[in-house]
Amino acid sequence: MYKTIIFDVDGTILDTERAVLHSLQAVLAEEGLTYELAELRFVLGITGAAALEQLNILDEERILANWIEREASFIDEVEVFDGIHKVLHAIPESGVVTSKNSLEMDKGFYPFGIHDHFEAIVCASDTENHKPHPDPLLKSLEILEREPHEVIYIGDSSYDMKCAHAAGVHFGLALWGAKSTEGFEAAECVFEKPEDILAYVVK
């Protein structure tokens, strides 16, 4: 049982996969770079800067700004996953640790009006190191004044799981976002739907 639930955003709270991948594909195409969506899936769960670095993009700052703007144009295709609202209303304390930076949060998270549910929100702009490094999650624990054993971090990517375990925190797989348990054998919990989380919360 856990006193606090900390969530990832993309693929866990928000269904952003289409917006993230299609916007990146479009921005890269404008630069004369052609990628299939499957080739870009690795970017899900890491910072935009890290994604562009792995793609060997030279003008990273300009391309990242274009990507953020293009992704914002897809916001009508982004939805809060079914069941998330119910869970956020039911749990006593929660937080967010995300690889989105502050600008991405302003354009692609806060407009959904769910941020008031969280006692701590840590984004990529808040720490020098990012997932899978434990620092973002450790910062969240510090803000929440919680010990690692009191919380569970719920996400949909291997970066999320590595971040959790590096911080000494249990990891819960958001199967509604991850789609598969392959590669997540070390997860302490697997949640098929958001409502399943409620059975693990200290009332």
UniProtKB/TrEMBL annotation:
**What is the top-level taxon of the source organism?**
Bacteria
Q: List the GO molecular function terms.
A: phosphoglycolate phosphatase activity
Organism annotation: Listeria ivanovii (strain ATCC BAA-678 / PAM 55)
Q: Name one Pfam family in it.
A: HAD_2
The name on file for this protein is: Putative phosphatase
What Gene Ontology cellular component terms go with this record? Answer: cytosol
Sorted alphabetically, the Gene Ontology BP terms of this entry are: DNA repair
Gene3D superfamilies listed in its UniProt record: HAD superfamily/HAD-like, Putative phosphatase, domain 2
State the InterPro entries in the record.
Answer: HAD-like_hydrolase_sf, HAD-like_sf, HAD-SF_hydro_IA, HAD_2, HAD_sf, PGP-like_dom2
